[in-house]
Amino acid sequence: TQLLEQSPQFLSIQEGENLTVYCNSSSVFSSLQWYRQEPGEGPVLLVTVVTGGEVKKLKRLTFQFGDARKDSSLHITAAQPGDTGLYLCAGEQGNNRLAFGKGNQVVVIP
Amino acid sequence: DSGVTQTPKHLITATGQRVTLRCSPRSGDLSVYWYQQSLDQGLQFLIQYYNGEERAKGNILERFSAQQFPDLHSELNLSSLELGDSALYFCASSQDQGGQQETQYFGPGTRLLVL
User: Fold this and answer.
1) Nearest chain B Cα distance for residue A52, angstroms
2) pLDDT-derived band at B95, boundaries 50, 70, 90
3) Test the B interface: residue of A50, A96, A97, A105 with most B CBs within 10 Å
């Protein structure tokens, strides 16, 4: 059983459209991280959210941590082909141990 | 470039064999983490070493073992390989100065194919 469920697993959109992907869990996390992974490379950290209800923005990406610190969402505004990648969420389990979801594969078509 | 290096990049071997994957952490990082990524399981934490000592264990099989050397590089040993061990193996490192939410920097991975 996956500790973190990400949905949708796969999403394909046209350049310029908006999208939202989700990361859900029944567990509470002290923090939650979002990574992007491109083919042939390791995951790269995008953001860490710590406080329930917290919203962080990274250019056109908006990350929100749920009030109960069990879920998170990532919203991309006016998606670009460079946003294509596998988006992974990870919950911290203590001592910097991370539990990852399976990811949201996003494809932005030019 | 994360500063974490992993060798080899690709590895093809046969069932029953043993392989060693190598990781050099970023300069100054004391913690090394090993992960396995497969299509059906996603990215799974295997084991963590801190300054030469094992700190945490995840879903690591008994056929797998790891160690961290005095120069802080780490090796992951996979033995009695099975077809299902085919996956991407990532190493990550962090400073691990005792705080939370520390950034883990991932290497480019080793793609293992067991035939």
Assistant:
1) 15
2) confident
3) A96
> Chain A partners of B31 at a C-beta cutoff of 8 Å?
96
User: Once rounded to an integer, what is the mean pLDDT over residues B1-27?
Assistant: 96
Each residue's pLDDT tens digit, A63-88: 999 999 999 999 999 999 999 999 99
Q: Do B43 and A43 touch (CB under 8 A)?
A: yes
Q: And the tokens for B53?
A: 């000592």
Half-sphere exposure of A54 (CA within 13 A, CB side): 16
d(CA B25, CA B21): 13
Domain count, chain A: 1
Alpha carbon distance, N-terminus to C-terminus of chain B: 31
What CATH code is carried by the domain that includes residue A75?
2.60.40.10
Average pLDDT of chain A is 93
Phi and psi angles of residue B85, each rounded to the nearest 5 degrees, phi first: -80, -10
The alpha-carbon gap from A68 to the nearest alpha carbon of chain B, in Å, equals 18
Range of the domain at A59: 5-109
**Least CA distance to A90: which residue of chain B?**
B43
